[in-house]
Task: structure prediction
Amino acid sequence: MSDEIEIDLDDLKRRMDGAMNALKTEFGSLRTGRASASMLEPIMVEAYGQMTPINQVGTVNVPEPRMVTLNVWDKSMVGKVEKAIRESGLGINPQLNGTIIMLPIPELNEERRRELTKVAAQYAEHARVAVRNLRRDGMDQIKKAKAAGMSEDEQKLWSEEIQELTDSYISKVDKALESKQEEIMQV
Result:
């Protein structure tokens, strides 16, 4: 391959990894009927005059599969933390026990599980689109390199490498979706 014409596969791979990480974050926000400390991450609490992530005002634990507990460090903050959880839209009713806030996770019904699998499928499709857009960026780099004098053989080689990379990431997205849907449908 010629020295001056180089397609940056590492950059494409890094950006595709970014799409996968975004998908994992979106999947983490889906409530599956199973307790997870990450479900509290988006909640902010007004603490000492500023908005603070909930995990910075107390310790989040998952003692049982259907229970999340939050041990609030400052006793004066318990009411504010409880209010923030109630208003977060998680659909969880906090129970107070001194400075410990217990969050029992209710069972999901069949209809809600099906809705969540559809949401997960939408997240996965967004990730696939992002990966395909990155593939297109790579192919555009090849076209520019062709104008700069890249040979037909080199074009074909780079195209095949970019396609293999794309296929591997699409496969990763599909596997992640399959396992998330299994997790959601598990009773």
Summary: The helical segments are 9-28, 78-86, 110-147, 152-185. Residues 1 and 157 are 9 Å apart (CA to CA). The chain has a mean pLDDT of 86. The radius of gyration is 23 Å.
